[in-house]
């Protein structure tokens, strides 16, 4: 576990010889905002920063306070801008991706933090998708799929080419494999709000492992980092303690405990950037400190087989990995169909 001083010193050493292009999905609040602001500080504003979110006013305020390069830097090489998007609908995500493709020729860093944590409102979106999975997983798949050519363009220039999903890495358990008979959490009865929401929360972490294993195996020169932020003092984390009915006392207890075991969004952001900057290529599952729980580097594109053993990837044991070779195929195939344009 690196100390905060080690983490900040490592992050401060990030001085790319090029003007980086970074997209922060969920950058108007919480961990995403913390990462965006810290990233901007480390490059002294010398970057093309794209903030994706719903709140235009929050984005404008954040952008106004970001550091700006001094007069010696060509102003045509850097910009800080906002792209509005309600990520609960995949059609909105595709439209935002089209807008970003029109603005950027490459992307060095794609960071996704926008999420949903309610345990009492599982819901279904207007596109027929489980609400938790739409906000925690499906939209992230679409961002990667739609923006991958721009990330590949950065790799082709021998620049950083990295994708990060801040969610729930390291939770995979061989004794609790992904349920391939209930993909999307829409097959089994959706009875009991808490039970349905909990299933979706677990699925989103396992699905993200599978998604990143798939993309990393197909793109060996790009880093795909799934990371667990831990307990963070944000409004989203507060929402995860909002229970009602018989579970109301549990919410009270959690709200009393969380301030003592959680960290600020800025402290968390430093550890997230630590993992983002230091991992070059391959699949990485990282803990809240930015250390890799498991990782795999691919030297060439790989097609996975039919092995359905959880926490094993391409024949190699991966502690904390929530997928399997067969699971990667099934989950990605299902996801492509569930998120396709209609």
TrEMBL record:
<dbReference type="InterPro" id="IPR036291">
    <property type="entry name" value="NAD(P)-bd_dom_sf"/>
</dbReference>
<dbReference type="InterPro" id="IPR052228">
    <property type="entry name" value="Sec_Metab_Biosynth_Oxidored"/>
</dbReference>
<dbReference type="GO" id="GO:0016491">
    <property type="term" value="F:oxidoreductase activity"/>
</dbReference>
<dbReference type="Pfam" id="PF00106">
    <property type="entry name" value="adh_short"/>
</dbReference>
<protein>
    <recommendedName>
        <fullName>NAD(P)-binding protein</fullName>
    </recommendedName>
</protein>
<dbReference type="InterPro" id="IPR002347">
    <property type="entry name" value="SDR_fam"/>
</dbReference>
<keyword id="KW-0560">Oxidoreductase</keyword>
């Amino acid at each position: 576990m690196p100390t905060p001083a080690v983490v900040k010193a490592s992050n401060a050493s990030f001085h790319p010889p090029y003007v980086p292009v970074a997209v922060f999905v969920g950058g108007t609040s919480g961990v995403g905002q913390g990462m965006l602001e810290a990233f901007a500080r480390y490059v002294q504003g010398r970057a093309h920063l794209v903030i994706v979110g719903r709140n235009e006013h929050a984005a404008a305020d954040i952008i106004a306070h970001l550091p700006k390069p001094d007069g010696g830097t060509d102003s045509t090489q850097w910009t800080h801008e906002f792209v509005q998007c309600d990520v609960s609908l995949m059609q909105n995500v595709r439209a935002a991706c089209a807008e970003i493709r029109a603005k950027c020729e490459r992307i060095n860093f794609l960071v996704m933090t926008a999420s949903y944590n309610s345990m009492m409102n599982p819901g279904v979106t207007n596109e027929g998708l489980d609400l938790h999975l739409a906000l925690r997983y499906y939209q992230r798949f679409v961002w990667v799929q739609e923006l991958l050519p721009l990330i590949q363009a950065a790799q082709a220039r021998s620049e950083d080419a990295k994708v990060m999903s801040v969610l729930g890495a390291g939770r995979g358990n061989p004794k609790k494999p992904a349920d391939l008979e209930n993909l999307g959490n829409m097959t089994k009865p959706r009875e009991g709000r808490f039970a349905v929401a909990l299933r979706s929360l677990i699925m989103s972490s396992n699905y993200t492992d599978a998604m990143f294993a798939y993309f990393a195996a197909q793109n060996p020169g790009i880093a795909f980092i799934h990371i667990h932020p831990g307990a963070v003092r944000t409004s989203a984390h507060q929402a995860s303690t909002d229970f009602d009915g018989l579970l109301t006392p549990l919410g009270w207890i959690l709200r009393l405990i969380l301030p003592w075991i959680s960290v600020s969004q800025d402290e968390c952001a430093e550890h997230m950037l630590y993992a983002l900057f230091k991992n070059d290529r391959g699949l990485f599952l990282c803990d809240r400190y930015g250390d890799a729980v498991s990782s795999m580097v691919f030297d060439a594109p790989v097609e996975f087989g039919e092995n359905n053993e959880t926490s094993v990837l391409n024949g190699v044991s991966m502690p904390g990995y929530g997928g399997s070779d067969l699971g990667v195929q099934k989950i990605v195939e299902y996801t492509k169909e569930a998120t396709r344009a209609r």
